[in-house]
Amino acid sequence: MSLINGTGTSTFLRIEGAGSSPDVSSYTFPLCNENGGLKETWDWKGITHDLLSYKLVKKKHGYRVTWDFTFDDWADGATLIKFKGLKNSLDNGTRWNLRPRDDDQFAWRIFEVQCTSDNFEVVLDNTGEWHTGFHIQFQTTDLVSSIDWQLVNTDTVEYAVLLENIATP
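Predicted structure:
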């Protein structure tokens, strides 16, 4: 099995001296091990021209990276309160970095982000144990120059389930 970009939790780190000072300097969120998991999307930004000679010319400026935190199936109250604190802090001008996966191997993958979600849906599930339907999205503040994917060293990964219990095609 090969994976990219880490397998740990996601951590937001407050940028010192940036905007109002929140009560906390970091927020760590559980994995989103649902249908899509924590989804990372790289959106190419640049200029494309189709010349009269039908030659295609592309000028790349970089990538806008988006992270979707999807808790469609469940989210506990503590997780939602952390997202509320982070969103309110961003709305008040505090700047935050996101480390998408908090693995030592990928500690260098840190991006300044903005929250691009302004509307939220939170539902209490029919058992009264969890909240459902919560989704929040963050994007890089600046363009990223190139795709930075790397393979995970799977010798050091601690999986939530035994690998032999996972069905393979």
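Summary: The two ends are 12 Å apart (CA to CA).
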